[in-house]
Amino acid sequence: MKKLIALIVLVLVTALYVGYYEALEDGDIETILFIKKHPTFQMKFYNIHANDGEIRQVERLTEQERKWIIDYCRYRLGIDTDLKTQNDVEICRKK
């Protein structure tokens, strides 16, 4: 019973504090794991900058892309942003 409880706690902590995103590296899709800066049950994130080399203009982002970047910035980098300026997009570009 104690092993089961320990396993459940381990799975819960992992779900809260480990995230990942997929990136295209040398023609292959790689899964990049990271420790989240804030706990959340969301595990899969989207790094909009991981797969294309060009910098996205903040005015051209869809609402979905904006949400992806905001979530990635908060949980991967620990940066809270409203993503209102191009500088906010640049700050969230870090890997």
Describe the structure.
The protein is an alpha+beta fold and 95 residues long. It has one domain (2-91). 39% of the residues lie in helices and 17% in strands. It contains 3 helices and 2 strands; from the N terminus they run αββαα. The protein has helices spanning 2-17, 63-77, 86-91; strands at residues 18-25, 28-35. A two-stranded antiparallel ribbon has the order 1-2. Strand 1 and strand 2 (28-35) form a beta hairpin. The protein is elongated. The termini are far apart. The relative contact order is 0.16.
Question: What's the layout of helices and strands?
Answer:
Layout lengths: L1 H16 E8 L2 E8 L27 H15 L8 H6 L4
Antiparallel strand pairs: 1-2
Protein name: Lipoprotein
Features of the shown structure:
95 residues; alpha+beta; two-stranded antiparallel ribbon; 3 helices; 2 strands; elongated
Please tally the helical runs, counting DSSP H or I stretches of 4 or more residues: 3
> What is the residue-averaged pLDDT?
89
DSSP E strands, number: 2
Uncertain ranges: none
Order of helices and strands: HEEHH
Q: Note the gap between the termini.
A: 41 Å
**Helical coverage, percent range:** 25-40%
Shape: elongated
Radius of gyration using CA atoms only: 15 Å
How much of the sequence lies in strands comes to 15-25%
Strand order of the largest sheet: 1-2
Count structural domains.
1
Structural class: alpha+beta
Biggest sheet, in brief?
A: 2 strands, antiparallel
Protein name: Lipoprotein
